[in-house]
Structure formats: structure tokens, C-alpha cells
Amino acid sequence: MPESVSVSVRCPACRGAHRYTAPSYPCVCGAPVALPLDGNAAPTPVVHRVWQDDWVTLRCGHCGRPGEWPRPELGCPCGTLLRIPLTDPDATPAPGPRETGAAARPALPPVPIHSARDAVTATVLYLRKLGHGDIRRADQRPPSGIGLAGRGIVALLDPSAHRATPRDVECLWLTAMAESARCLYFSLAGYAPDARESADRLGVPLFLLDLTGTPQPVNAPADALDATRT
Fold it and tell me: Where are the stretches annotated Disordered (predicted)?
């Protein structure tokens, strides 16, 4: 089967065009495993997350061992979470993708998301990459989700299957203002369009946490922060 490195993705909600590159995962034998993307099929919006549907079993092309990997997903800036189709979920994947174009930002360690605890771990690791090494559970419990805090920073992680609302974004912003801190929002399910508008107006960075444990920036404040990570 031909190697699939990256595919063009068009969001069915806003018609925005994106480029998605298949992530590479380490097999237990040490060889990289990449998911075979289908560039001819349309992406599927994820409306209701069902955990057992979020994983695919693929064999390592080097040792032949089967492994479970997160299905590839892409967060559109409009707030829609897109599932990228695969050519054949039962096929042997090709070796890891090759880097092309401009130099990529430093890779994050993979933390596949199986539970809320995994989501917290991935978020904390990302915040450390942004220079915040003192992350802890927030003293003040948020109305929804999981609150995290560090020196000069407040973060909200929502591991639920519901898209964030404007009220969620505004509550986080108010909490941060009260503590004279910067705030960040991490969501597994994405953001409603009006929540994205509120975040843009208030300057709240929004991140979509995909099943590989990689926070993807979905607005300009998040892009600016992501560019600073080490």
C-alpha cells in the first residue's frame, strides 16, 4: 500500500482547507508506526465521542505486532472536530511520515488519551513545555472541567464530550482576571462557534486536545503561545 504522509482536509462546516500530517507512534519494537490516511475520502465531524470508536488496530510494518492507536483527528479553527479517514483500518501501516517544508516545532511526547487522567497528564506536559513547571490542581474548582494552576497561569481542561460554550470561556477569563493570571482553555470535544468568538474577543487561547495527547491551537492567541514552547 502506498505511504500516506499528509492529506488535504476540507471542513464540511466552514469549508476551510487544512493540511493534515499523519502522526507517528513508537511500536514496542522501537520502529515508528504511521496511520495510512485516505486523501480521497471526506473527514467526518465528531459530534458525540464514543471511546471505543476512537481507536484503530494496526500492525507494525517492521515486526508485525498489532497495536491500538488513536484515530487521527484535526481541530478546525471554526470549532469543529474532524476525524480523518483511513485507507484501510486493517492494513499494515507504512513507516513514520517524513518531515517536509519548514522546520517543525519540537515534538511532544505521546500521551494517548484513554481517560480524564491521561488528558490531565498531556495538558500538564504541554504547560511545562510553555515554561510552567509548577502546575497543580487549582484551589478554586471551576463550574465544569478540571482546573489547573501555576505561577501566573490558570488553565481549564474539559475532558467531556460537550463543546465549550461562551459561558465556559467567560468564567475562565473572569477567574484569571481575579487572580491577575493568564488563562488557557483545553478541550477534547472542541468549541461552539460563539465560544470561539468570545475567546477571540477576550484573548483566551483555545486548544483542542486530540487523542494523541497533542494540544492543537485553534485561535490566534493559542498559535502565539504554541510558538513559544520548547
Answer: 87-110
